[in-house]
Design goal:
The chain is of the alpha/beta class. About 45% of the residues lie in helices and about 15% in strands. It has a 6-stranded mixed sheet with strand order 1-6-5-2-3-4, with helices on both faces. Strands 7-13-12-9-10 form a 5-stranded mixed sheet, covered by helices on one side. A two-stranded antiparallel ribbon has the order 8-11. A hairpin with a 2-residue loop joins strand 9 and strand 10. It is globular, with a radius of gyration of 24 Å. Homodimer.
């Protein structure tokens, strides 16, 4: 129970989960624990691994974990937390994304002990008649209690009928898999409770639900998201991953420890007390960054990333930086940064110069109208982006 509750937002109902654990211990039959992810993007970031970590903790206790790829539900589009209709993905997009999902999830889960399922297995077979039967088991009034639907309806924002099918189909997944526990982020609570309701409708013992907090991104404010640019991808290079983890605030670091680290809560509490007593919080952050980087790369890569970070913090240039050749000298600095892949646009490049975030051979660039002459030099943007540019 302590492992189940670590870092979680809600575990409902706790008494039912305790009974399920006791029954499992008495019978020797593992509990079935389900996590569903829709392959809406090809990559997983460490925000996604919060629930994967919980799955791994329960997997290590001997329970059966089911990694469910929502290839069918992706075609509907999850409306959770949205104020507009999510465009459904094509079958080709879903297939391409799903191919990378499990490979990445296996960096957290034990692939030898993980059951992989696709919800098209039973959803496609349901057919129109089965869909009507399923839809009859829930009311429109109950569906409209959901915050995002309620808010959109009140604001006069369109809600498509197919969006009502999403929570129904996610709930039906729990029926098909006979799950004992379903995990998800706090934004999934309605969908998780739907599974519990439908299992009762189909005469099954209802699952418990466990929600995990949504992890703030590097900005410490918004939920980690690729669209917001505040994420750490689990397939990013080790140096980039380490550097990003070192950039989080000293306060947010402790939430990352609780939700992402394999260290025990006692170890984390001791470390936190040491920092409160005067130990440099940077020491703790290095420990976190090395642990996470080693998990997705290797211990050697984490050590090298730490050394790279130290070199950069002293103003040094990393050993391994991109090299490229450009033409058009003398070239406007904004254009150079864009062509070198150091800024997504000229306007963003000029904004970075305004902020003092651009250096050429270590010297800060302050002139947005600078024309760079031919030559070979190292261009740096921020603390982590470098390129050795030969301009002709």
């Amino acid at each position: 129970m302590n492992i189940s509750l670590r870092g979680c937002e809600e575990l409902l109902p706790q008494e039912d989960w305790l009974n399920k654990l006791a029954k499992s211990e008495a019978t020797g039959v593992p509990l079935r624990i389900k996590l569903g992810l829709d392959p809406t993007a090809p990559d997983i970031h460490i925000g996604h691994t919060v629930v994967l970590n919980k799955m791994r903790q329960l997997q290590d206790l001997g329970h059966t974990v089911i990694f469910l790829i929502g290839d069918f539900t992706s075609m509907i589009g999850d409306p959770s937390g949205r104020n507009s209709t999510r465009p459904p993905l094509t079958a080709e997009q879903i297939k391409a994304n799903a191919e990378t999902y499990y490979r990445q999830a296996s960096l957290v889960l034990d692939p030898e002990k993980t059951e992989i399922r696709y919800n098209s297995e039973w959803s496609d077979a349901l057919g129109a008649r089965g869909m009507i039967t399923l839809a009859a088991k829930y009311t429109v009034a109950r569906m409209m209690e959901r915050n995002d639907f309620h808010d959109r309806f009140k604001a006069g924002t369109p809600i498509s009928v197919h969006e009502f099918l999403y929570p129904l189909m996610q709930g039906y997944d729990s029926v098909a898999l006979r799950s004992d526990l379903e995990l998800g982020g706090t934004d999934q609570k309605f969908n998780l409770l739907m599974g519990r309701h439908l299992q009762q409708e189909y005469g099954q013992e209802p699952q418990c639900i466990l929600t995990m907090p949504l992890l703030e991104g590097l900005d410490g404010v918004e939920k980690m998201s690729k669209s917001k640019g505040n994420y750490i991808g689990i397939t990013e290079p080790a140096n980039e991953m380490f550097g990003k983890l070192m950039s989080i605030s000293d306060t947010l670091m402790w939430k990352y420890f609780t939700l992402l680290s394999w260290r025990s809560e006692a170890e984390i509490a001791t470390l936190r007390a040491e920092v409160a007593a005067g130990r440099n919080p940077r020491d703790a952050k290095v420990m976190l960054a090395k642990e996470i980087t080693a998990r997705f790369h290797s211990a050697a890569a984490a050590d090298a990333a730490e050394q790279d970070f130290v070199n950069r913090s002293k103003g040094g240039i990393p050993d391994d930086i991109p090299e490229l050749s450009l033409g058009g000298a003398p070239l406007a600095i904004g254009t150079l940064l864009k062509q070198a892949g150091l800024a997504p646009s000229t306007s963003e490049a000029l904004r970075l110069i305004e902020q003092g975030g651009v250096r050429i051979d270590g010297a800060v660039v302050s002139d947005k109208g600078l024309k760079v002459n031919a030559g070979c030099f190292v261009v740096q943007v921020g603390k982590r982006k470098f390129a050795r540019v030969t301009l002709a």
